[in-house]
Amino acid sequence: MRMRPVVAVLAALVLSCSESHEGGPGATVDGATDAGRADAAVGRDANPDATRCEDADGDGHLAFGCGGHDCDDSNPMIGDSSRRCASPSSVSVCSRGEWQDEECGEDTPDCDARHGACVETGSACGDGVVHPAEECDDGNLVVGDGCAHGCVLEACRASSECPAGELCSYRASDGRILCRAPIAAARDTGARCLEDDDCASGWCDHDQGRCTESCVANADCGGALSWCTAEVPTVDTGVCAVSCLGEADCPDGFRCAWNERTYCTRSVGEATLGEACSRESECDGVACIYRACTYICVSDEGCPLDGWHCDLTSPIAAPPGWPVDSFSFCVPDEWGRDES
Known about the structure:
Blueprint: H1 4-23, H2 35-41, E1 64-66, E2 69-71, E3 83-87, E4 90-95, E5 98-103, E6 110-112, E7 117-119, E8 147-148, E9 152-153, E10 167-171, E11 176-180, E12 204-205, E13 210-211, E14 214-215, E15 226-228, E16 238-242, E17 254-259, E18 261-266, E19 287-289, E20 292-294, E21 296-297, E22 308-310, E23 316-317, E24 326-332
Antiparallel strand pairs: 1-2, 3-4, 4-5, 6-7, 8-9, 10-11, 12-13, 14-16, 15-16, 17-18, 19-20, 21-24, 22-24, 23-24
């Protein structure tokens, strides 16, 4: 018998809601003619422009609707489920049947998209939105997918360790090797470059004048003439380099050098072809053979100095995939010439 007053009250509330909906803003509820008092009688905020008594999301609660969700910030019987992030630093709250944006405070500056609530810095990591203090946010806290726990970018050794479509590249601002999205309409690894922005990887190796990326094996670099410096000598990681067959294959101001493999490098010395040297750094031609600066060549045309030729008597086997079988160095004619 004690339940009857409660049932009666609930029935009266539903009847009031129905009457308010049918009668419009001027309908009378318990003798009240003011629409705001009628709404208050059933625990809702007054808003003549909002849809009354709407079960927008089918949860059995009748309330004002905001974007397909019931909301009511004055009726404790209806859960406060209508909160969402308006931006990484602001929350949108359903109030009086409408979304109202509010900036997050200094102590809780980030809006967590999972809950539609302002939280402390770092607490929103994993919600799929990159906040000011985050380097990345892929919607999870799993390590090994490029974005580590704490929403910081993970270090990489080669692009094969990065998410599909990203490249393992050097970040000049802090010297880290990280996965990054390629720069649109930029040049591929191995192309000639002057600035980092010339390259899809965002990394122009100024020592060789080529776009590059991090690698651990030749297969990471692609292309018949591309190779990974990690293999010569063997180290943990290296950069992709491009082999050269002579000076013509290198950018202006670079020479074709050799260290188990050929590669373009800047001219650092002052001694030119044929001049004496004790080490390669003294040569403009970057190769010091038998105490004389020389060039790499595949034919006599690669030796621009009169009285010099390409020594084909002692060729060096070219790596697989090269357009030639071997290469050699420019030497003086008095050293002898292969007439075969």
